[in-house]
Design goal:
The complex is a heterotrimer of chains A (266), B (293) and C (369). Chain A has 266 residues and is of the alpha/beta class. Helices cover 42% and strands 22% of the residues of chain A. Chain A has helices at residues 44-51, 74-80, 97-106, 113-117, 121-141, 156-169, 186-203, 214-220, 238-243, 245-252, 255-261, and strands at residues 6-15, 18-28, 33-37, 59-64, 67-68, 82-84, 174-178, 206-210, 223-228, 231-236. In chain A, helix 3 crosses helix 5 and helix 5 (121-141) crosses helix 6. The longest helix of chain A has 21 residues, at 121-141. Chain A is globular. Helix content of chain B is 72%, strand content 4%. Chain B has helices at residues 2-32, 39-55, 61-84, 92-114, 140-162, 164-174, 176-181, 186-211, 221-234, 239-259, 267-281, and strands at residues 119-120, 130-133, 136-139, 214-215. In chain C, strand 1 (309-311) and strand 2 (316-318) form a beta hairpin. Chain C is globular. The chains are: A alpha/beta (266), B mainly alpha (293), C mainly alpha (369). The B-C interface holds B 33-35, 83, 86-87, 90, 92-94, 96-98, 100-102, 104-105, 108-109, 111-112, 116, 221, 225, 228-229, 232, 263, 265-266, 268-269, 272-273, 275-276, 279-280, 283 and C 74, 76, 142, 145-146, 148-150, 152-154, 156-158, 160-161, 164-165, 167-168, 267-268, 271, 274-275, 278, 321-324, 326-327, 329-331, 333-334, 337-338, 341.
C-alpha cells in the first residue's frame, strides 16, 4: 500500500461568517493526475491556498510526505515540494520569461548573496546551470522562442504556460494547477493536455488541477473530487462522477430534476 | 489633585484637536485608501486664512474661522482633483509619493508667500479667560475646545449615519466600484469627503493656533503626523475610531509630560511608538474594522 | 510620456553571457578613465567644481542605496534620513578627538568610553555602516510585518523617532547643538571611491539571482513566496544593504560638512532622496545616478531663483524669493508623478549591450552585430 503523497483531513476555513472550505478530506497517491472540480465559489482555489500556506485553516490538517504543513510560510512549503499556478495569472510582469523561470530556481540556490556579489565560481556555476535548465523548461512548455520577451507582453495562453514553467523550476513533487486551460482554444487545450500528461509520465510529478473545462478534465484525470460550497460531494473516476446525481444537481441546480419529473424536454 | 484635574482638561483639549485632524485622514483613507500627507499642511493654510481674516480684514474670530473652513474645504477638494484624481488607478505607492510632494509644495509655498518667521496668533477674549475651580486654574480655551469638538463630531456622525451623502460615503469605503455602477456620482462624494475633512482640520488648526499662539508654515507637519497615528490607533477608516484615537493620544502625551518630565522631550516620539505598536499587534486599530482589500 | 525610457526600449538585447567578457573590459576601462579625470581635477580643477562633484558622488551613493529598497524591492521606506544620521553621528563620535568632544559637549559630558578615544576614518566608517545595518536589521522585524502605505508610515515613524532621540540624547549626540569640528577628511577620492564600491556591490547584487528575487518580491510578493522566495529575508537583505551604504555615506557627509545636527537629517532629507530616485526612475540604478547628479547640480544652478534675477530680453526684475527652489522641486515631483510616473529611465538600465545596439542602429547599411 503506497503511502499517500498529500493527505488532507477535515480541512476547514472561514472568511468572516462564510465557510469557504468545510471539513475537506482528500488523498493523493504519488504519480496520480487528479482533478478538483465544482461550481464557482465551491472553495477550490481556497483549497489550494490552504495547501500552499497562503491562507491559515481554522481546522483540519494538511500532511505532505508524512509531515504536517501547519504554520509554515508559503516559501517553506514550496521548498518541501509543492508548487502552484494561479487562477488570475500572477507573473512577474516586468521580468522576461526567462527571468520568471529563473526566479523559480532561486529557492534552490546554494550560494550566499556575498558569493553572488563576488561572482565566486560556485555561484557562477549554479547560475549557468539555472540558465540552461530554465531554457529547457521553457522549451518543454513550448515557449522556446519567447525567452527574452517581457512576461507582461506575452499572449494570454503563453502566460499560462510560463506560469507552469516557473512552477516547475521550483522542483516540486506535487504540482497544483489552478485553471490552466482557462481562456484557451481547443488546439491550445489539446497541447496543454499532452504537456500535463508528459509532466506526470516523464517527470514523475503528482498533479492536482482545478478546471471548468470538462472535456479537458474527463480526458486526462484519473480521479476527480467534486466540491460544492466547501464540501466534498463526490469522489471517484471521471466516469462515475459524471453520472453522480449530487454532482449534476450542484452544477445545474435542482431545476433539472423537476424538468425531468414533469416529463418535459431536458 | 488640582494638578491632575488640570492635566485631564489639558489632555482632553489636546485630544480634541488631534481628533478633529484625525477625522480628515480617516475619511479619506476609508474611501481612497490614500494617506493624505498634505492634510496637515491644509490645516496650516486654514490657520493663515484665519490669521489674515483677523489681521487684514478685522473680522470677528468666528467669521475668520468660518472663512478658514470654507477656504480649506475648497483647497482640499482642489488638491484631490488636481493631484490625486489622476492617480486613482495608479499603484498606491505613486499616490503616496504624490501626496508627499503636495505636502512639501504647500509648506514651501507657505514659506515663500508668508515668510518662514512665526507669527503671533490672536486669541479672542472669550477664550483668553482664566477660570478658577478652587485651586485649579484653567484657560477657557481648554474648556471650549472639547465642547466645540464634541458638537462638531456629533454633527459629523449625524451626517454620516442619517443623510444620503453620508450613506454614500460609507458605501464608498466598502466598495467603490459597485457604488459607481449604481449611478452614484462618486467624484462628488469624494469631494464632500475632502471638504468635510479639511474643514474640520481647519477648526482643529485654528484652535491649535489659539492654544500655542503662533503659526508658521511648518506648523501642520507634526500635528498632522500625530493625528494620523491617532487615526490608525483608533482604527483607520472608522470615524469614531479617529475621535477615540485622538483623545487617547492627547491624554497620553499630556500624561507623559506631567508624570515623567525627565523624558518629556520624547513626547513627539510617543505618537509614532503607539503607531508602530498598534500596527504590529492590532493593525485594524481599536475599533478594529477590517477594511476590504 | 516616456523620454529617455523610449530610447532604452530596444526590445530584447543579446544575452548577457555572450558579451560578458567584453562588458567587463569596457567597465574597467571606463572606471580608469573616470579615475584619471578625478586625478586631474583634484590637482588642477576649480575647487568649487571639486566640492560639487564630491557632494554629487555622496548623493549618488545615497540614491543608489535608497533605490535598492524602494525601487528594486518595491518597499517604500521613508527613513533613509535616520540611517544617514546614524552613520554620520557614529562616525563623527568615533573620529573626533577627546578634546574636541569636551569642547562640544558643554551641556552634558559624552558617555564613556566614547569620550576617551578616537580612531581613524576608515574603521570608523566601517563600524558606522555595520551599526546602521544592524539598526535596520532590528527595525526590519516590526517594519516588514506590514506592507504598502503602512510600511511607509511605519518607516516614517521610525525615522521621526530616531530624530527625536538625536535631539534628546544629550549625553550621546549632544542634542540640538549637534557635533562640530569634525575633521574635513572627505575629498573627491573618498566620495567617488565609496560610490564605486556601492555601485559594484549593488549592481552585482541586482544582476544576480538575488536581484531577480528582489524584483519578484516587488512585482508580486504572493507569487514570489509561492515560488520559494522568503519575502521577509529578501526584504531584510535589501533593507540592511541599503542601510549600510547610507550609513557610510552619512559618515563621509559628516566629514565633508564638518558639523552635523539633528535638524539636517529631517524628513526634507528623505524627500530629497525620494525626488532623486523618482526623477531617475524608480527601480533603475542608472536612473538613481542620473537623478543624483541632476538634482545636485540642478539645485545649485537653481540658486538664482532665490537670489533675485533679471529676465533677459524683457529686462524684468524678479526679486529674491528664498525657498523658491523647494517649491520648484515639490512641484516637479508632483508633475512627474502625474505625467511621467516612470521618471526618466523607468526601470531600464544602462548596459554596454544597449550602447552597442544604439550605435549599431546608427551605422548605415548594417554595421554588423
Amino acid at each position: 500500500m503506497r503511502r499517500s503523497l498529500l493527505e488532507i483531513k477535515g480541512l476547514s476555513c472561514s472568511f468572516g461568517g462564510l465557510r469557504a472550505v468545510d471539513g475537506l478530506d482528500l488523498e493523493l497517491e504519488p504519480g496520480v493526475l487528479a482533478g478538483l472540480i465544482g461550481p464557482n465559489g465551491a472553495g477550490k482555489t481556497t483549497c489550494f491556498n490552504l495547501i500552499t500556506g497562503r491562507v491559515k485553516p481554522t481546522g483540519g490538517r494538511v500532511t505532505f510526505e508524512g509531515r504536517d504543513l501547519a504554520g509554515l510560510r508559503p516559501s517553506r512549503i514550496n521548498h518541501r515540494g509543492i508548487a502552484r499556478t494561479f487562477q488570475n495569472i500572477r507573473l512577474f510582469g516586468d521580468l522576461s520569461a526567462l527571468e520568471n523561470v529563473l526566479v523559480g530556481f532561486h529557492g534552490g540556490l546554494r550560494a550566499s548573496f556575498i558569493s553572488a556579489i563576488l561572482r565566486l565560481p560556485g555561484y557562477v556555476r549554479q547560475e549557468r546551470q539555472m540558465e540552461k535548465r530554465a531554457e529547457e523548461l521553457l522549451e518543454l512548455v513550448g515557449l522556446g522562442r519567447l525567452i527574452n520577451e517581457k512576461a507582461a507582453n506575452l499572449a494570454y495562453g503563453s502566460q499560462r504556460l510560463l506560469e507552469i514553467a516557473r512552477a516547475l523550476a521550483t522542483g516540486p513533487k506535487l504540482l497544483l494547477l489552478d485553471e490552466p486551460a482557462a481562456g484557451m482554444n481547443p488546439q491550445e487545450t489539446a497541447t496543454l493536455s499532452r504537456l500535463v500528461l508528459r509532466l506526470r509520465d516523464e517527470m514523475g510529478l503528482t498533479i492536482l488541477l482545478i478546471e471548468h473545462d470538462m472535456h479537458f478534465v474527463m480526458n486526462i484525470c484519473q480521479s476527480l473530487t467534486v466540491l460544492d460550497q466547501g464540501r466534498v460531494i463526490a469522489r471517484g473516476t471521471p466516469r462515475a462522477v459524471q453520472l453522480d446525481k449530487a454532482v449534476i444537481e450542484a452544477y445545474l441546480g435542482a431545476g433539472i430534476e423537476m424538468a425531468q419529473e414533469e416529463g418535459g424536454d431536458a | 489633585m488640582a494638578d491632575f484635574l488640570q492635566q485631564v482638561v489639558n489632555g482632553l483639549s489636546l485630544g480634541s484637536l488631534y481628533a478633529l485632524i484625525a477625522i480628515g485622514y480617516t475619511l479619506v483613507y476609508g474611501i481612497l485608501r490614500l494617506i493624505n500627507f498634505a492634510h496637515g499642511d491644509v490645516l496650516m493654510v486654514g490657520c493663515y486664512a484665519a490669521y489674515f481674516g483677523g489681521a487684514m480684514f478685522y473680522l470677528p474670530w468666528w467669521a475668520s474661522l468660518l472663512g478658514a473652513m470654507a477656504l480649506t474645504a475648497l483647497l482640499g477638494v482642489l488638491i484631490d482633483q488636481g493631484a490625486y484624481r489622476p492617480l486613482r488607478t495608479a499603484p498606491r505607492i505613486s499616490a503616496l509619493i504624490t501626496a508627499i510632494g503636495v505636502s512639501f509644495l504647500l509648506e514651501n509655498l507657505g514659506i515663500v508667500i508668508f515668510g518662514g518667521r512665526p507669527r503671533s496668533f490672536y486669541r479672542p477674549e472669550i477664550f483668553d479667560r482664566i477660570i478658577n475651580f478652587g485651586d485649579v486654574r484653567i484657560l477657557s480655551l481648554s474648556l471650549w475646545t472639547p465642547v466645540i469638538t464634541a458638537g462638531l463630531c456629533i454633527a459629523l456622525l449625524l451626517i454620516i449615519h442619517r443623510t444620503r451623502t453620508g450613506m454614500a460615503m460609507r458605501a464608498l469605503s466598502r466598495d467603490m466600484v459597485t457604488v459607481r455602477l449604481m449611478g452614484i456620482n462618486t467624484d462628488r462624494i469624494v469631494a464632500y469627503t475632502f471638504a468635510i475633512g479639511s474643514a474640520l482640520a481647519a477648526v482643529g488648526g485654528v484652535f491649535w493656533a489659539m492654544k500655542y499662539p503662533q503659526i508658521n508654515p511648518n506648523m501642520g507637519v507634526m500635528p498632522g503626523l500625530k493625528a494620523f497615528s491617532a487615526a490608525v490607533v483608533g482604527g483607520i477608516g472608522n470615524v469614531t475610531g479617529a475621535m477615540l484615537g485622538g483623545l487617547i493620544l492627547g491624554f497620553l502625551e499630556i500624561m507623559l509630560v506631567a508624570l515623567l518630565p525627565a523624558i518629556a522631550g520624547y513626547k513627539d516620539a510617543l505618537a509614532f511608538l503607539l503607531l508602530i505598536l498598534i500596527l504590529l499587534f492590532r493593525p485594524t486599530g481599536i475599533m478594529g474594522q477590517e477594511l476590504p482589500e | 510620456m516616456r523620454l529617455l525610457g523610449g530610447i532604452f526600449d530596444l526590445g530584447p538585447l543579446p544575452r548577457r553571457s555572450a558579451t560578458r567578457g567584453r562588458d567587463n573590459m569596457l567597465t574597467v576601462g571606463f572606471c580608469l578613465a573616470v579615475a584619471w579625470v578625478l586625478y586631474w581635477l583634484d590637482g588642477h580643477g576649480d575647487p568649487y567644481l571639486v566640492h560639487m562633484l564630491t557632494m554629487a558622488a555622496l548623493f549618488a551613493t545615497l540614491a543608489v542605496s535608497y533605490n535598492l529598497i524602494n525601487g528594486v524591492t518595491g518597499q517604500l521606506s521613508l527613513e533613509p534620513n535616520a540611517f544617514v544620521a546614524c552613520g554620520a553621528y557614529v562616525t563623527a563620535l568615533l573620529t573626533l578627538s577627546p578634546q574636541e568632544k569636551m569642547a562640544s559637549f558643554i551641556l552634558e559630558p559624552l558617555v564613556w568610553p566614547l569620550s576617551e578615544f578616537c580612531i581613524p576614518l576608515l574603521p570608523a566608517l566601517l563600524i558606522a555602516g555595520s551599526l546602521t545595518a544592524l539598526m535596520a536589521f532590528l527595525m526590519g522585524f516590526p517594519v516588514f510585518r506590514v506592507r504598502g502605505d503602512y510600511l511607509a508610515i511605519v518607516t516614517l515613524g521610525f525615522g521621526e523617532v530616531i530624530r527625536v532621540v538625536a535631539e534628546n540624547a544629550q549625553s550621546v549626540t549632544n542634542g540640538p547643538l549637534g557635533l562640530k569640528g569634525i575633521p574635513r577628511d572627505t575629498n573627491i577620492w573618498w566620495a567617488w571611491g565609496l560610490l564605486g564600491v556601492t555601485l559594484f556591490v549593488i549592481v552585482r547584487l541586482v544582476n544576480s539571482s538575488y536581484g531577480r528575487a528582489l524584483k519578484a518580491v516587488r512585482e508580486d510578493e504572493t507569487a514570489a513566496e509561492a515560488m520559494g522566495i522568503n519575502a521577509f529575508w529578501h526584504k531584510m537583505l535589501a533593507f540592511c544593504t541599503s542601510a549600510f551604504f547610507e550609513g557610510v555615506a552619512g559618515g563621509l557627509l559628516a566629514h565633508l560638512l564638518t558639523a552635523i545636527s539633528p535638524k539636517q537629517f529631517d524628513f526634507l532629507f528623505t524627500f530629497t532622496l525620494l525626488i532623486i530616485i523618482v526623477i531617475g526612475g524608480l527601480g533603475s540604478t542608472t536612473g538613481a545616478l542620473l537623478g543624483a547628479f541632476l538634482v545636485t547640480f540642478g539645485s545649485e544652478h537653481l540658486r538664482f531663483v532665490e537670489e533675485g534675477f533679471t529676465v533677459p530680453l524683457i529686462g524684468l526684475d524678479i526679486p529674491a524669493i528664498p525657498g523658491m527652489r523647494m517649491v520648484i522641486f515639490s512641484l516637479l515631483l508632483v508633475m512627474i508623478m502625474i505625467f511621467m510616473r516612470r521618471g526618466l529611465l523607468g526601470r531600464h538600465e544602462f548596459s554596454w549591450r544597449w550602447l552597442a545596439a544604439v550605435l549599431g542602429r546608427r551605422t548605415p547599411a548594417g554595421g554588423g552585430k
